[in-house]
């Protein structure tokens, strides 16, 4: 019997397997695909995600470019924000990142097998992986947005429409600046992430408005010369669903942990891997994991609330953002992990009247 079976060798699964194998757990990692394999993603790794991995002992080799400055554009305005850290966002090809992380797990002693899992069955002292003959003391569901582990273990049912972002990804020429385009999609945004020889570019939005996202991508692709590569869903945090039960724990997209405002999933994939691996040492791993993830879940709930307020009024909020650059700078600090989002939100709400005054005086000056 294995100590831990990790289902899914994406970033959340491989980092969990890496940490468990490092602690001496007999760890098996299963994925239905051979690696390297394609995964639809913008390939943007924020500084805090990169740095968290570094703290765990993984110094990433796969980034192809490091961007210190981020451009945010839309509604005829533009703002540039510069990171005080080594960089704000590193960009890479997910084929290379995922292979690199799986290799790290294997180097620590985890064993990898190609296997499509159709479900798990929980017993008192172990969990069985249906049809494979494998059983383990614990199973980690790292099998992504449509996690079969989550459903078959009874941890949660399917996502609701407002839990999910629908995103379309493509290839574009090599642009100079890493750019977010906030008016590219009515319920989300567009991105251009330059990397080695080209740029990853796409648009995302709320899944119930997927037709709008498809239409937005058509216009975006003409404007920025983007060739479609794929589309997928991103399950976002801020929901009230469980993330663990008994001997089964979910990490990354399987647990629905991406940032509701930006769709950033990699930081939360690594963070959940870390908390999950620590929890297995406790008497009641499911309880301990859910408790240890409490702060993260709270942050994601607040981000979801912020999204529901900001995104439908993006024009208004972005223009304020531009009139009051300190808002943009502080938001950048949250995404590189230097400022708590709750603190930023409290501070930002109080600045709205001032930002509105600045905006009004700018408009007045321009019209005179
Ligand atoms: C278009 C798009 C753009 C994005 N851009 C960014 C970005 O720039 N930055 C960022 O931080 N996040 C981004 N995200 C989110 C990010 O891609 C995810 O949050 C991240 O991949 C989650 O990692 P994971 O390991 O949990 O799941 P995944 O990466 O989805 O890995 C799941 C693994 O499980 C395997 N699997 C699934 N089912 C089974 C099964 N039944 N049996 C065996 N194996 C199985 C799959 O083959 C896969 O390898 C983006 C997402 C999309 C869709």
Q: Name the shape in a single word.
A: globular
CATH topology of the largest domain: FAD/NAD(P)-binding domain
Query: What is the helix tally?
Result: 11
Alpha-carbon distance between the termini?
77 Å
Mean pLDDT: 94
User: Which structural class is indicated by helix and strand composition?
Assistant: alpha/beta
Share of helix, binned: 25-40%
Q: Could you say which small molecules are bound to this protein?
A: flavin-adenine dinucleotide
- What's the CATH H-level homologous superfamily of the largest domain? FAD/NAD(P)-binding domain
The total strand number stands at: 18
Strand content is 15-25%
Q: Based on the coordinates given, report the CATH architecture of the largest domain.
A: 3-Layer(bba) Sandwich
Rg for CA atoms: 21 Å
Characteristics:
368 residues; alpha/beta; FAD/NAD(P)-binding domain; D-Amino Acid Oxidase, Chain A, domain 2; 8-stranded mixed beta sheet; 7-stranded mixed beta sheet; 11 helices; 18 strands; 24% strand; globular; binds flavin-adenine dinucleotide; Geranylgeranyl_reductase; FAD/NAD-bd_sf; FAD binding
Structural summary, described in words:
This protein is α/β, with parallel strands linked by helices and about 375 residues long. The protein has three domains: about 1-65 and about 90-160 and about 240-300, FAD/NAD(P)-binding domain, CATH 3.50.50; about 160-235, D-Amino Acid Oxidase, Chain A, domain 2 (2-Layer Sandwich); about 310-365, no CATH class. It is about 40% helix and about 25% strand. It has eleven helices and 18 strands. Strands 1, 2, 8, 9, 10, 11, 17 and 18 form an eight-stranded mixed β-sheet that branches. A seven-stranded mixed β-sheet has the order 6-5-13-14-15-12-16, sandwiched between helices. A three-stranded antiparallel β-sheet has the order 3-7-4. Helix 1 (about 10-20) runs parallel beside helix 3 (about 95-105), helix 2 (about 45-55) runs parallel beside helix 6 (about 265-280) and helix 9 crosses helix 11. The longest helix is centred in the last third of the chain and has 27 residues, at about 340-365. The chain starts with a strand and ends with a helix. The model has no long low-confidence stretch (mean pLDDT about 95). Flavin-adenine dinucleotide binds next to helix 1, strand 2, strand 12, strand 16 and helix 6.
């Amino acid at each position: 019997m294995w100590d831990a079976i990790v289902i899914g060798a994406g970033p959340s699964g491989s980092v969990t397997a890496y940490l468990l194998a490092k602690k001496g757990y007999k760890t098996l990692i299963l994925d239905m695909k051979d690696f390297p394999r394609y995964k639809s993603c913008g390939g943007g790794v924020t500084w805090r995600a990169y740095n968290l991995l570094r703290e765990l002992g993984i110094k990433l080799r796969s980034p192809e470019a490091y961007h210190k400055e981020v451009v945010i554009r839309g509604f005829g305005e533009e703002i540039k924000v510069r990171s005080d850290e080594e960089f704000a966002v590193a960009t890479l090809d997910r084929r290379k990142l995922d292979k690199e992380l799986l290799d790290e797990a294997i180097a620590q002693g985890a064993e990898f097998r190609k296997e499509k899992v159709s479900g798990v069955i929980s017993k008192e002292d172990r969990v069985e992986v249906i049809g494979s003959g494998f059983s383990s003391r614990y199973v980690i569901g790292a099998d992504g947005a449509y996690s079969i582990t989550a459903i078959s273990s009874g941890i949660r049912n399917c996502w609701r429409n407002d839990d999910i972002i629908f995103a379309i990804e493509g290839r574009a020429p090599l642009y100079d600046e890493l750019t977010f385009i906030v008016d590219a999609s009515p319920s989300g945004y567009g991105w251009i992430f330059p990397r080695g020889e080209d740029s990853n570019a796409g648009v995302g939005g709320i899944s119930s408005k997927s037709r709008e996202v498809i239409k937005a991508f058509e216009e975006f692709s003409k404007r920025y010369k983007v060739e479609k590569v794929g589309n997928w869903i991103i399950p976002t945090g801020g929901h009230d669903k469980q993330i663990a039960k008994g001997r089964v724990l979910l990490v990354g997209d399987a647990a629905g942990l991406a940032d509701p405002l930006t769709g950033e999933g990699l930081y939360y994939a690594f963070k959940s891997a870390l908390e999950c691996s620590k929890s297995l040492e406790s008497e009641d791993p499911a309880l301990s994991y859910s408790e240890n993830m409490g702060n993260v879940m709270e942050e994601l709930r607040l981000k979801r609330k912020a999204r529901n307020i900001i995104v439908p009024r993006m024009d208004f909020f972005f223009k304020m953002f531009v009139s009051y650059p300190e808002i943009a700078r502080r938001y950048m600090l949250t995404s590189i992990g230097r400022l708590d989002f709750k603190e930023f939100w409290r501070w930002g709400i109080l600045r709205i009247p001032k930002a509105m005054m600045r905006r009004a005086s700018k408009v007045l000056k321009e019209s005179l």
